[in-house]
Amino acid sequence: MEPVGPGLYELKRMFVAPDARGTGVSTALVAESERLARSGGGVRLRLETGVRQPAAMRLYERAGYRRVPNFPPYEADPESVCYEKELG
């Protein structure tokens, strides 16, 4: 996760080992990323995933992320899906 603008953080990479999937680890990682962004002054957190990762898309949607237009450098990539969440 890194700051990319005033109050805006981007979750760059998140990976959970196959044997840990379905255990709640990914949900905890997303929640901790949000907490860290807030503690750094973040008010929004955004991320990019791929259309071939439906489990990741479900995870983010369950966590309250909404789909947004693809942001740079993903705007021309039809395989990319971008999400954002207000951290309020």
Write a compact overview of the structure shown.
By secondary structure, the chain is α+β, with helices and mostly antiparallel strands.
Account of the protein in words:
This protein is of the alpha+beta class. The protein has helices at residues 25-39, 54-62; strands spanning 2-5, 8-11, 44-50, 66-68, 80-86. The chain has one domain (2-86): Gcn5-related N-acetyltransferase (GNAT) (Aminopeptidase), CATH 3.40.630.30. Strands 1-2-3-5-4 form a 5-stranded mixed sheet, covered by helices on one side. Strand 2, helix 1 (25-39) and strand 3 (44-50) form a beta-alpha-beta unit. The longest helix is centred in the middle third of the chain and has 15 residues, at 25-39. The protein is globular and about 35 Å long. The protein starts with a strand and ends with a strand. The mean pLDDT is 95.
